[in-house]
Batch of 4 targets.
Target 1
Amino acid sequence: MNAMKLIALPVLATALVMTGCASRKPAADVQAGQNPNGSTTVNTSGLSEDAALNAQNLAGASSKGVTEANKAFLAKRVVHFDYDSTELSNEDLQTLQAHAQFLVANANSRVALTGHTDERGTREYNMALGERRAKAVESFLITTGVSPNQLEAVSYGKEMPINAGHDENAWKENRRVEINYEAVPPLLK
């Protein structure tokens, strides 16, 4: 009986995934226009729910809080850390200050701060270190006036490296917090 369950579970899971994929709507063109009040509207008919949300977020990008002086810093969406550290560098403070300025000017913007580590250390230790890094960035943003409701700190530890190497250069790239806009990103054009 247990062997039957072991065979049935993968088949059932595959069927559910295939059913979910089959019910998704195909990609469609996204068309943006202007309302009489000046706000942007997006025609999302024919899009899946996720695609419609992404299209609305991109159309809802804001230039409020974006200056020529902070564009380069707003384009940077990653801050890096030294080994076993949660200290922010002076360069990273400038990047975070630009993002804080944008977030304060755009109360509808939402950001996920994802903490990452290099591969050294246990999974548990790295999850905690990734969280401390994300919280360090979150704390800085809050102290500069960003609403805590606009921020979410998440840790991935060593589970999502961007460089699969096993040397200091790879480890240096992987020790990071990513700034991921989930709603109303900066318009940098």
Target 2
Amino acid sequence: MAGTSSGIVAGLTAAAVGTVGFLAYQASANVPPGLGGKSGASASPSAVVSRAPRDRGHPGALPTGSGKGERVVYSVDDDRVWLVDDHNRVQRGFGVRPGSVDPPVGLYWVTSRSHTATGTDGVPVEHVVRFTSVDGVAIGFSAAVGAGADTTMDVKTGGIRERREDGDAMWRFATIGVPVVVIR
């Protein structure tokens, strides 16, 4: 009887591992058609949780373990963004100023865009590229138009602010469905 029980457990374990592998494969597949993403846009979920060391000698270098293919990479610890083409070449890298609410580390997709809007801090912004929300606060990239207001700590903001020229580049690059990889 013991041999039969261990065989059943081994079979169930193998089935569970196969199911998890299949789900991981599906999660790394192309952007769902309903999002209207670019064909072939994908990123590896396993790369998102990678904590491979970065080359601190080159702060502009794309961190290893940040995925593959076309994507936006955002480091919450370094306050830096990289726009990466489908050949894993950095098209542009730049520093940003985050809001008071950070997105969790993970894999997201650009879900909405607005040419102009007003940030939760009352500052007019342009080229808003949103990819998630945290506790009801929209998280996305944007560029302030004109002089920015002083943000009070009482206001929860999810705007990751860019310089206007970086915002223009983000707007051209990050269309609906493009993956956004958030790393530490």
Target 3
Amino acid sequence: MASYFDEIQKYFQHHNRTKELNGNHTAKVHSVGWSCDGRLLASGSFDKTVSVFLLERDRMSREATYRGHTDSVDQLCWHPFHPELFVTASGDKTIRIWDARANKTVATVNTKGENINICWSPDGQTIAVGNKEDLVTFVDARSHRVKTEEQFKFEVNEISWNNENDLFFLTNGHGCINVLR
């Protein structure tokens, strides 16, 4: 039996265009990401919602729509080894940790600005979130409390840890990558 992705691949080969996966968003989709086990796909939107899809043997189906943010969901990231947990960054000056099993928010953490990027550390213990004012906030993923904040004097565009969890990378508006220990 062909998988959903085999069918998509055949579609691309014959039609040479994109295939639309409708998440029932009513506005621009800003972010998309796969769970660590590859079974769930989430999309975050300007419409303040997140849609989660389940990849089954022969198809992909929408599982749930998550509501709670009061501004756009600009980025999301799945937990590195718990396939049911993901975190969202929003313009409403919060991040939310969600549990896909329970279809609800586990925690809401207030931040100082409109959040535009987010990543989970490889060990799952820390969430980093960057805002429009180039402030990166590090949140303890278990206690849901802010550990530290780092204000940068340059435009921070994207953030990520290395796999060893000992270096933190920031891309900037000057065409460089900055590395923190």
Target 4
Amino acid sequence: MSTVLFTGTATCVGGRNGHSQTSDGSVSVDLGMPKNGVLDAGKTTPEHLFATGYAACFGSAVELVGHQKKLDVTGAAVTVAASLVKGDDGFSLAIKLSLKAPALSAEQTKEVLEAAHQVCPYSKATRGNIPVELASS
């Protein structure tokens, strides 16, 4: 049986060139579509928002795994690059997820990265749907 711990709700008007806001007002952003790789000042994209959420969630998964494995993940930084991709079947997302953990060896960083990818809710939601490339630095 599942128990809902929290629900975040957001509404967007105008799609990729509109405005998105959470029901509690904690996030309120103007959206834009980059032109020639440049985004208008003061605007963001759905990919930026997805990357931000995924990075935060994955960071918590890294902390959980570090605690379970008794590894020092202090100062660990998760970077997520969410790319909008156009293929033969239309548009989709592709993710590159990187972990930098200053107190860990390269082998330990890879171990934590792979274990966190198994428990992170975003990773679970994207598994089999979105290609996710894991990288440790």
